[in-house]
Inverse folding.
């Protein structure tokens, strides 16, 4: 349940309420908005909520108490009505500007990643993406260069000043990846790896949480709740396509998930049209659609030589194609009152 305090509530009032909730054995989460302070009480049994709400409403500094029946509490709009904006090295995600995260699927060499970083940065990309640890369906596929790739990404950041987002796949690697990355990514295969979600919740780094390939929107938001419940509210939800009966595209990109999430959650929503389609020539139209649908950010794979890429060359844009897409996206963003 959430408890909304009156505008006149003092810090002492807030602490009294928090202690009251802790004495009841509930988890407590605070959301301080521009006009309202909201206290989330996690753990109240549904059958007791009406009684507890009546008791808490007796405090003169409590404006109202709202039971939350959804399985996700902290990441929902009820708990935090204002949109969350995440700032990473001066880049705001969730604000008026649509942020583009671009780079190679896999880091293959320092030359490759720096060349790509320079190219995408020169046309407006704000965050560098690149895989150091790569999940693969086949155990014989390329699985990334590990810490060497993280060092190469850091070198590219030194050159371009772009923040880095990269995937972490194992609880044992969270500390290592967090030493290098500015944003930790949880991939589709790990959306329900609850141990990993808890671990990145403790890492105090922004997290990109990709939707599971067969997950509902509610399951996706509950996965985000695992991270938020550990105290990390800096979560970026990423729609990357879901598995359906269609075989022409790599996945089926769920464009409706973007406005749906905007209505359900305060977290920024990002689109990954590269994985969503699996075909480079479909990336641009789906990226434009995502912007019009309300996406706060885009994640796009770019490679200087896709025909030689060790992973996902078929869905990677060449730098010149990416540059044209960035120009086109500016017009789309302007049409919906945003900017690139």
């Amino acid at each position: 349940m959430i408890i909304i305090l009156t505008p006149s509530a003092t810090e002492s009032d807030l602490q009294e309420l928090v202690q009251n909730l802790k004495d009841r054995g509930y988890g407590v989460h605070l959301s301080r908005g521009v006009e309202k302070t909201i206290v989330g009480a996690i753990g109240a049994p549904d059958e007791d909520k009406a009684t507890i709400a009546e008791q808490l409403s007796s405090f003169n500094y409590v404006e109202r108490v709202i039971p939350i029946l959804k399985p996700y509490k902290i990441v929902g709009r009820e708990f935090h009505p204002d949109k969350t904006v995440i700032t990473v090295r001066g880049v705001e995600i969730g604000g008026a500007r649509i942020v583009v995260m671009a780079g190679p699927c896999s880091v293959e060499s320092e030359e490759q990643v720096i060349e790509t970083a320079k190219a995408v940065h020169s046309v407006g990309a704000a965050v560098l993406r690149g895989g150091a640890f790569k999940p693969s369906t086949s155990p014989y596929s390329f699985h990334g260069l590990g810490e060497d790739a993280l060092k190469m990404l850091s070198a590219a950041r030194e050159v371009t000043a772009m923040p880095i987002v990269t995937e972490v796949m194992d609880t044992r690697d969270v500390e290592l990846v967090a030493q290098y990355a500015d944003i930790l990514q949880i991939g589709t295969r790990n959306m329900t790896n609850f141990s990993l979600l808890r671990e990145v919740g403790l890492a105090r780094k922004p997290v990109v949480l990709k939707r599971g390939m067969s997950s509902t929107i509610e399951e996706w938001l509950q996965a985000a709740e695992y991270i938020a419940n550990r105290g990390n509210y800096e979560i970026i939800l990423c729609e990357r396509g879901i598995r359906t009966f269609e075989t022409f595209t790599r996945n089926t990109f769920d464009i409706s998930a973007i406005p749906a999430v905007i209505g359900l959650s305060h977290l920024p929503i990002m689109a990954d049209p590269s994985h969503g389609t699996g075909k480079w020539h479909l990336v641009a139209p789906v990226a434009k659609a995502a912007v019009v649908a309300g996406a706060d950010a885009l994640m796009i794979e770019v490679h200087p030589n896709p025909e030689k890429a060790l992973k996902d060359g078929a869905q990677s844009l060449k730098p010149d194609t990416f540059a044209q897409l960035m120009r086109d996206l500016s017009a789309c963003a302007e049409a919906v009152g945003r900017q690139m």
The two ends are 37 Å apart (CA to CA). The chain has two domains: 2-66, 86-335. The chain has a mean pLDDT of 94. The first strand starts at residue 2 and ends at 5.
